């Protein structure tokens, strides 16, 4: 059991939590501005795909990262425009964009790489030692540029929301868009900005997912966007708490990996895999009804 | 900056086919409190919104100083020194007062960081000058209605407005708070500000206005200085006639009531704790006799709404006994209670009417299918006709959509439905919340007459109202609610100041 409290465990937890945390912080940005965002899953998938495709084409991981983030931001902005300008129901738009991302990445995978399951391997960022356990793994996880960017974005979010003009206006748009508009705030513009930021942060998660595997796999986001959304709700739409929830979830998943290693695919292995999901359900069950959503969530200014 | 003169020059505003304001002329001048009065739907609020750039005129011009207000937006209006305080506060409930104050006009340091210190300093300076004290660090939803209103005015001043337009500012205030508000407005006017107030309360015009504009059906019908006496100036009676376009209604005569009349409505130990663990009602005891009208006064949010909902059966968590006649209602469903207890909830738009359904359907809502063995079938057409006639609903067309009627006539529908169903005599009670809120003088008189008639027929009546004048006029007895409790019982001869003190929990001085 010593391996449960090891550096490997810490490193795995961090590595696993990054995509969840990015998507959760993205969810906080979107929903605090008043736009329901269930399209996080689609953004993870799209940005993962675009980053790999560009990295393959250009041979540059940096260009892949930039392209992935740009794609995520654009995807998110598209959602905001559909909701704010075309007045499409945000849930419908979110579902549509998720489906588009699933189908679009599969189709492009076939078109570009002639495969139904995965892209060719890419050379992502490689800093630090090469070992796969203990301090080597931890050092490599911590030195990963995408992880560092994700940590910075996550850390900056509570401050930006609480202490800046953009944050104040974002929260006003999410709490009471009519009052914000009467105060001279351009609510659609504030929401576009918030969703751009949201999409870019979520895309960091998608890029991390792909670079971590050194390739794109069909459907590789695997529900992470929805679990992140659960973390947003549990946290009461607060970024720092949502990230904590994601770390806890990452720890459970890491635990499952470590235990599975030990159990060596014994009868309990399948049950152990369920662990993180059962935990999510339990936490959601207890938190439901307590957390208060932004009161202008899903409302328009006029 | 000097306060601007705002001139409305032949201003018309249409909404689709409906003309809300038609070729209106008005001048709002610095140094004056200008009252705008009229019935519901007369166009008062629309006029104010046109002056504040919230709505753009369909024809005509709004001049601020010498130039037209263009573009007609709130942002441009505030840039020109004109600010509006809306009837429904435009505040973010989850923000602190300071955050609300600065929203849209935030002082910032580098990187877009909010400069809270300088905002606070500026706000404090204005507060000290005008006496508009608001706890700046409190979360807005924890503020009292009066504090929120001060915050709204402070916010308008914070943006540099020298003309302040207020839409029904006293509708939600207690009498003492209303007086305080006018003291503040008077100080601002004396300081050279332009003040305009839309109001329903004619006594406020008499006590505080320098000038009054009366609107009827979208037109300005009277605009003159108001003075307590003198030629060429308006006096109270003229005002009522101008508003109604005819003679004022007959005064209300409170029906006589026997001292030893039987107890009809009995409430004992009624308590309610809400989902958040807050105690909303604390063992409310109240008895109402046959033919008695009891008024409940209290500052909003002190349990009045919860009391009405609990009596109607809408709060399953309520404990305690509610009985009408000898029938115990406390375990009965909403529907079963309605046979002996008529209830009017306070928000007619949300809970009283289906705006999208016809007047006729609304009038018999909940009555269809109520057949007891041996009872004659409910005659829907006859009930609709009778209720429309008895309560004088205009236009008398059951096929119209309820949402198309004026507020006063909508309220008559709600009252008609609650009262007409009840059997006359000592086996029925009625609980009416805010029976004439936002209703014009004529409709209010009709509703008051209907309430008097119900009491005269033996029904026990409870009225909850923010309008103390209304309670003093109608009720045989006024009880005051504070923090979910009935704290005092007063005679209707008590002055508004006495009642107001009881509402605030201050001992009589």
Query: Gap between N and C termini of chain A, in Å?
Result: 59 Å
Give the overall shape of chain A: globular
Number of strands of chain B: 20
Q: Report the mean per-residue pLDDT of chain B as an integer.
A: 87
SSE class of chain A: mainly alpha
Oligomer: heterodimer
The CATH class label of chain A is Mainly Alpha
Percent of residues in helices of chain A comes to over 70%
Tally of distinct domains of chain B: 2
Strand order of the largest sheet of chain B: 6-7-8-3-9-10
Low-confidence stretches of chain A: none
- How much of the sequence lies in strands of chain B comes to 15-25%
The greatest inter-chain interface is formed by: A-B, 19 and 24 residues
> pLDDT average of chain A, as an integer?
90
How large, in whole angstroms, is the Cα Rg of chain B? 24 Å
- DSSP strand tally of chain A: 0
Largest sheet features of chain B: 6 strands, mixed
Can you tell me the CATH topology of chain A?
A: ABC transporter involved in vitamin B12 uptake, BtuC
Whole-number tally of structural domains of chain A: 1
CATH architecture descriptor name of chain A: Orthogonal Bundle
Describe this structure in words.
The complex is a heterodimer of chains A (302) and B (509). Chain A has 302 residues and is mostly helical. Chain A has a single domain (2-287), classed as ABC transporter involved in vitamin B12 uptake, BtuC (Orthogonal Bundle). Chain A has 12 helices and no strands. Chain A is globular, with a radius of gyration of 19 Å. The termini of chain A are far apart. Chain B folds into 2 domains: 6-244, P-loop containing nucleotide triphosphate hydrolases (Rossmann fold), CATH 3.40.50.300; 265-504, 3-Layer(aba) Sandwich (Rossmann fold). In chain B, 32% of the residues lie in helices and 24% in strands. In chain B, helix 14 (407-420) runs parallel beside helix 15. Chain B is globular and about 70 Å long. Chain A binds chain B through residues 163-166, 168-169, 171-172, 175-176, 178-180, 182-185, 294-295, and chain B through 54, 74-75, 78, 86, 89-95, 99, 102-106, 108, 111-114, 155.
